[in-house]
Amino acid sequence: MAKSTFNLPAPAPTITRPPAVSGLLAPTRFMRLVALVLFIAAAVLPFISASPYLISILTSAMIYIVLAMGLNVVVGYAGLLDLGFIAFMAVGAYTSGILTTQFGWSMFESIPVVVLACIAAGLIIGGPTLRLRSDYLAIVTLGFGEIIRITAKNLQITGGATGIHGIPTWSFFGWSFKDGLELGGITFNSKILLYYFVLFVGIGLAVVAVSRLGKGKLGRAWKSVRDDEDVSEAMGINGYKTKLMAYIIGAIWGGFAGTLMAAHLSAISPNSFEFLYSALVLMAVVLGGMGSTPGVIIGALFVSLAPEFLRDFSEWRYLLFGVLLVVVMIFRPKGIWPATAVLPFLKKRNIEEVPPTEAVTVVGELDDEFGDELDGKRNANEEGTR
Q1: The pLDDT value given to residue 261
Q2: What predicted TM-score, i.e. pTM, was given to this entire model?
């Protein structure tokens, strides 16, 4: 055995991970702080300007947020392309409208029936079709949306083409929003009470529930199926049941948004649930960022409020609206706020350079044959450098 000393090349220097941001600038805390500030601003807004027009369009915009949060579970988390999601909104709106106008129920009492109706609708359409993928699933859901609308248009109990009118607002144990509320000398009418109800109950529940679902075990299963269904099946995830669960949860949120819209408008008709509205809600999810809660909220606000802000342009407003959508998608193809978005102040952090590593000298015993071969190569290299 020959004892030899030789040098090993130094490993390439590595880049250290910058320290995590702490305090209020930590990503999670910062986003919660921003959400709290915006939530408080929305709650204070009626005290600044309580015009009926402003309250009405903001209530509609918040209902669109609730609807988009439900579709985000289906499209953003589970990756199911649904072109008829507005049908679940129709199921919820018509179920609550029929129970309140023809059977004398309150809107609050109709919620359990609405949930059951949406679960049944989700099972009927999702049960046989969620084994399909991509374009085939989109075509089936598009047909489902049209079936619901045409059925409502031709049934007597749904009011036919004229729909259902005189739907009462929300009421709880004999007290209705219509009665108004007076607190500290300030009177809140039914529209403002409904505004706060949609803000605190609708958006509050939707954001908390959907965000928690996305971060939980079921949410991770949805994302696994979305990324690669075959691999997730190999890892033991039942893709069919996972997708069906996402479809049913999305249907429930769609139905709840339907009850809010029925109480807000006090009238519904088949024209309120055309394919255009399914496309707009899907556009809100894609435009904001699929799988991103802040992105979906931004997208829903943009889709619902942009046509109102462009109302002064009369017949040109939808053309300008389309141009704005195209421009946004060109410059933000992954959405305004995608799920992988990084806060701006985190992109400018300085990364410390790692000093180069010196060569390492190793002393060890080698076989005679290998040692002689290594010495020969080293001598040859030394002669070549001379």
Answers
A1: 94
A2: 0.82
In a domain, 5, yes or no: no
Q: Give residue 326's pLDDT.
A: 84
Q: What pLDDT does residue 366 have?
A: 47
Question: Which residues form the domain of 113?
Answer: 52-340
Q: Give the confidence band of 308 by pLDDT, cuts at 50, 70, 90.
A: confident
Nearest to 265 by CA among 190, 213, 337: 190
- The number of folded domains in the chain is 1
Judged by average pLDDT, the poorest of 100-109, 287-296, 311-320 is 311-320
Would residue 364 count as lying in a domain? no
The verdict on residue 9 lying in a domain is no
Mean pLDDT comparison of 77-86, 133-142, 255-264, 322-331, highest-scoring range: 255-264
Note the pLDDT tens digit of each residue in 114-131: 999 999 999 988 888 888
User: Cα–Cα–Cα angle for 105, 111, 115, nearest 5°?
Assistant: 135
Is the per-residue pLDDT at 383 higher than 80? Answer: no
Q: Which two tokens stand for residue 121?
A: 């609708």
Q: CATH number of the domain at 280, please.
A: 1.10.3470
Q: Can you give the three-state secondary structure of the chain, one letter per residue?
A: CEEEEEEECCCCCCCCCCCCCCHHHCHHHHHHHHHHHHHHHHHHHHHHCCCHHHHHHHHHHHHHHHHHHHHHHHHHHCCCCCCCCHHHHHHHHHHHHHHHHHCCCCHHHHHHHHHHHHHHHHHHHHHHHCCCCHHHHHHHHHHHHHHHHHHHHHCCCCCHHHCEECCCCCEECCEEHHHCEEECCEEECHHHHHHHHHHHHHHHHHHHHHHHHHHCHHHHHHHHHHHCHHHHHHCCCCHHHHHHHHHHHHHHHHHHHHHHHHHHHCEECHHHHCHHHHHHHHHHHHHHCCCCHHHHHHHHHHHHHHHHHCHHHHHHHHHHHHHHHHHHHHHCCCCCCCCCCCCHHHHCCCCCCCCCCCCEEEEEEECHHHHHHHHHHHHHHHHHHC
The answer to whether residue 87 sits within a structural domain is yes
